[in-house]
User: Fold this.
Amino acid sequence: MMLTRSRRTDRGSAVESGGTGGTGLGSARSRFERRALAARRRPRLLAGIGVGLLLLVGLLAWAGWYSPLLTADRVEVTGVSGSQAAQVRRLADVPLGGPLLRVDTDAAVTRVESDRQWKDVTVERALPHTVRIDVTPREPALAVRTASGEVQVVDREGVVLRTADTPPKGIPLVTSGAQQVTPEGVTAARQALSSLDAGLQKEVSGVSVSAADQVTFSLTVKGTKRTVVWGGPGEAATKARLVAILVKESTGTIDVSVPSSPVTR
Assistant:
């Protein structure tokens, strides 16, 4: 009897153990199936995201190149105003009414720079409807009379801005003992004036250049005119500092052609 009970107990234990093992196997199979399903879905999900991104890019491209939502309908000019701004708009000749992203900004820059009075030019698109042009005008520094009698107005870099019959008011006229001011003479005059303090530059009323490119100019401070003998192009910074000091002490001639031995008389 005890032996029979023992077998039943063992059989029951075996059944019990087998039942537990079956449950664990089913759970593992379920997890495996879920993972397999997720793995099968992932490529479809990624493909869907890719298609969505392509559609978004296409929509943005369409909006930028063809849609009336981003049309170029105004040109904004900064750096100058009034008639100068109007001139920049005419030079840029930006086509309005079409897609903003199709505006050729490089071509607009080239057209504006064809007029040499503009030193720096940038053109950019500003969403949703604006083309923005920023310009820096060249400032006239000297007037030079040519052999034909015309007056060329040049900036500090020597760029000819325009020609005129007479020197513009407030722009120093460069003259020479020779028949005509040479390019080297103009360069020497530009370098001398650009070395001066900004306040003194405005007070220069006339510049003379000798055949040897020696520079002399008139300087009016507090109603009194001084003559500055600048000399050649060397040691410009030292000469400029001496002029700024001596102009307060002298009412006659200031000679800084030899900076180590300045002379006033």
In short: Residues 140-264 form a domain with the Rossmann fold fold (CATH 3.40.50). The first helix runs from residue 2 to 65. The mean pLDDT is 83.
